[in-house]
Amino acid sequence: MKNFFRITFFLFAVCVVSGFLLSFFYTKSIDRIKENERKTKIEAIDKIFGNEKVLEKEVSGKKYWVVGDKGFAFEAKGMGFQDEIIAMIGVTKNFEIKGIVVLKCLDTPGLGAEVAGDKFLNQFKGKSAPFEVVRNIASGPHKIQAVTGATISSKAFVKMVNSAIKEMKKKIKK
Amino acid sequence: MKNNFKEFVKGFFEQNPILVFLLGLCPTLAVTTNAINALTMGLSVIFVLFFSNLIISLIRKMVPNQVRIASFIVVIATFVTIVDIFLKANFPSLSKALGPFIPLIVVNCIILGRAEAFASRNSVFLSILDALGMGLGFTITLIIMGGIREVLAFGTFFNVKVTPDFMPKFLVMILPPGAFFTLGILVGIKNAVSMRKK
Questions:
Q1: Is A17 strand, coil or helix?
Q2: What integer pLDDT is reported at residue B86 of this predicted model?
C-alpha cells in the first residue's frame, strides 16, 4: 500500500512539473506563433494583389480579407496526398481567380509538391470555378492540366479550390 | 578521462544509433529529403536527448521502478513540446516543412533507449556526454543522408547548387525508395569498414 502512494505521488509530481514548464513556454510563445501565422497570410495576399490595403473580415464564422477595391482573399483547406494542403486564394469581385499561394503542402517533393509551383498555379489565373483536371494540355475556360506524376495531388488541390470558392460565394452573397 | 571520451565518441561510429542500432528510422527515412531538414531534426533530437538524459539521470534514484517508463515518457514529451513550440515561434517555415515529425520525436526510440539503457544507470556527467555523442552521431548521419539525397535529386546542398548542369536529377532519391537505398548503402559501408578494422 505504501508503494501505491509512492508511485501515484511520483507520477503526479512529474506531470505537475511538466505541466508548469509547458504552460510557461506556451504563454511566452503564443503571441509570436499567432503573429507568424498572420504574417504569412498577409504576405501571401500581398503576393497575389501587390501591396494593397488589406482588411480582415468575418462572415458566418469564416475569415476573409478584403483587398482595396480589387477583390478579396480567403483560405482553402483540403486533404492532399499526404497531409492537409492550405492555400490562400485571391479572387476579383466576380470570383475570377487573381492568384493562388500555397501556405502549406507536405506532398512528395518533386512530384505532388509541384502543385505549389508557379507552372501549375498560373493556370488558374483569370479563370473561374468550377475547375476540372485534365491529363493532357488544358483547353477551355475551366480546365487545369494536372502535374505529371501527381494526379492525386492535382485532383485534391482542384477539388479544394472548387469547394472553397463555392462556400465563399454562398457566404458573401448573404 | 579516457573513459569519458569513449562515452562521447561511441555514438559517432561504433554505436551509431542509426547505422548500428537501426533506431529512430522513422525520422531518418522521412525527413532526410534535404540537408536543412536533416540538420533541424538532428538539432532538435540533440536538445531533447540532452535534457531528457540530464533530468532522468538526476531523478534516477527517486523513480519507482514500476512507473519508470511512464515518467521517462512524460519528461521526454515535455522537452519535445518545448522544441515544437520554439520552432513554431521562431522558425515557422522549418516547422512547417518538418510537420508532424517534430512531435513524433517523443516516440523516437533513440531517446527512450538512451534514457532506459544509459541515463537511468549512470551519473549525470556521463549521461550528458552520452546524450551529446549519440545526438551528434544521429545528426551527422542524418545530414549525410539528407546531403546525398538532396545532391542526387536536386543538385543542391543546403540549397546551394553544387552539381554541373549536365548532371541528371534522380527524382527517386527524394521518394521513400531513395531513403532506403541511401540508408542501406550507408549501413553497408559502416559494416564493411568495421569488418576491415577487425
A1: helix
A2: 92
Residues of A in Cβ contact (< 8 Å) with B62: 10
The tens digit of pLDDT for each residue in A9-67 reads 999 999 999 999 999 999 999 999 999 888 888 888 888 887 777 777 777 777 888 88
- Residue A6: partners with Cβ closer than 8 Å, 6 or more residues away: B64
State the count of interchain CB pairs (< 8 A) between A and B. Answer: 66
B198: pLDDT strictly greater than 80: no
Residues of A in contact with B149 (CB under 8 A): none
Q: Where are the domains of chain B?
A: 2-19+27-145
**Chosen from A25, A31, A35, A42 to mutate, greatest number of chain B CBs within 10 A:** A25
**pLDDT value at residue A92:** 85
Candidates A10, A16, A108, partner chain B, best to mutate (most B CBs within 10 A): A10
Range among A59-63, A136-140, B65-69 with highest mean pLDDT value: B65-69
Running DSSP on this structure, what letter comes out for residue A122?
Answer: G
User: According to the model, what pLDDT value does residue A174 have?
Assistant: 58
Q: In chain A, what residues touch B97 (CB-CB under 8 Å)?
A: 106
Average pLDDT, chain B: 89
The label of the residue with cell 464564422 reads A61
Amino acid at position B153, single letter:
A
Q: Is the pLDDT of residue A106 over 90?
A: no
SS (HEC) of B103-134: HHHHHCHHHHHHHHHHHCCCCHHHHHHHHHHH
